[in-house]
Amino acid sequence: MSISGISRRRFLEGTVAVGAAAATGGLFKPAIAQGTTEIVHWSWLQASDGEVWTRAIGAFNEAHKGKGVQIRMELVPEEQYRTKLLAASASGSAPDFGWGTAGKDAALAKDGVTVPLDDLAKSAGLDLADFSENSLKAARYPKYGPELHMVPMDLMSLQPLLNLDHAKAAGLDPNAPPTDEASLIEWATKLTQRQGDTVTRSGILMTGTGLQPAVTWGIVAEQMGFRRASDDLKTASVNPDAGKAAMQWVVDLFDKHKVSDRNVTDRYKAFGAGEGSIFWTGPWTLAGYKTQGLNFKPFLFPKIGKEQRTYFEMGGLQLYRQQDESRHAATMEAVKWLSDNSFLWTTEGRGASPRASILGRPDYKTAGLSWDLRGPFVEGMSFASVGEVPVPGGPDFTIYTNTGFLARALEGVWVGQKSIDDAMAEITQQWQQDLDEA
């Protein structure tokens, strides 16, 4: 998930201090008393969410002073994480636990790099009944058994942000944002500025290639009835005509409606600079834009197709294989504490909580960023269902990708160098191969 070579986790990191982790050169290392178990944790969080996570780890260590356990957190760049993890696991020196994204680590589960957690969670007293059904489902890899391979920590979706200054100037009511395809295009048309045929301000902020058109296609395609894989993970590209229609919908933003500009390259920077009026993104951008002083407001993703759907992503904590398996119990106790105390993480860090007890707290809506910013990303989880395909070839199915297979396969469509039919055939062939190999 990189943007122009920069992970989205580093988005606007210059506006927020990374805190203790940065101050120690990428290492959060508490003083370890003799006889204390040191649990090693790898994290790739480096932007504003990294600062909050550093505080969460610090809170654990403070609460467990003199109790025989401390966490040592090491920062590993996201683009290097899997390679370093596999090498460490092969040499018997893997960290005790680390961050993962649900559905992306089927190969790690298949090869025994991640540890099944059901029995460990039960022994530690982690209340799995408090987690949403969807979050627990996303934490499993059904091709390789029913076991849980992740403790869900946050739930994220893509929702649109609206530049309120642009809306006011266009005479649009931000309290009644677009809810369907017709109203979305109407708003985008009114918000777009042009010089002749050249779009100078995009009504809907897109990029000409890479992640933004790919993730947009993935969302709109599933709204129109396309499925990347059947429920039994045996058939690729269910209802391909809907997938083709969604490709045309994205192309039309540029060429028919003329509300998007192919020349935009850095979408985050462009929206922050006022070069776009509507921009769908994740909750990780909220703190940065607020700090930047941007006047904006999120709203729920419109129903463009026959059903309202949007991108789903779940972050969670995974335990890794150890030579000394007795370490797993202590690690799960630490992960349980971090989950039980994840109120800070899901109000100031990122995403919605997967736990009913946290969502039900009376102060959940008043803590952290204001609810008018956080609210749509929490409420929008009710229709966030376009997640990962949990097979080893899952990265090929990922719609949130800048340089992965899907972005490359679709790039020619966006620039007019590949037909929609050819793109669908290429995608289907690769995806079917991935499913067959699984």
Secondary-structure topology with pairs:
Blueprint: E1 2-3, E2 6-7, H1 20-23, E3 27-28, E4 37-43, H2 48-63, E5 69-75, H3 78-90, E6 97-101, H4 106-110, H5 118-124, H6 133-138, E7 151-157, E8 159-163, H7 164-169, H8 181-191, E9 193-195, E10 198-204, H9 211-223, E11 227-229, E12 236-238, H10 240-255, H11 267-272, E13 276-281, H12 286-292, E14 296-298, E15 310-319, H13 327-340, H14 345-349, H15 356-359, H16 371-379, E16 384-386, H17 405-414, H18 420-437
Parallel strand pairs: 4-5, 4-6, 10-13, 15-16
Antiparallel strand pairs: 1-2, 3-5, 6-15, 7-15, 8-13, 8-14, 9-10, 11-12
Helix pairs in contact: 5-13, 9-10, 17-18
Write up what this structure looks like.
The chain has 18 helices and 16 strands. It is of the alpha/beta class and 438 residues long. The chain is globular. The longest helix has 18 residues. Strands 3, 4, 5, 6, 7, 15 and 16 form a 7-stranded mixed β-sheet that branches. It has a 5-stranded mixed β-sheet with strand order 9-10-13-8-14. A two-stranded antiparallel sheet has the order 1-2.
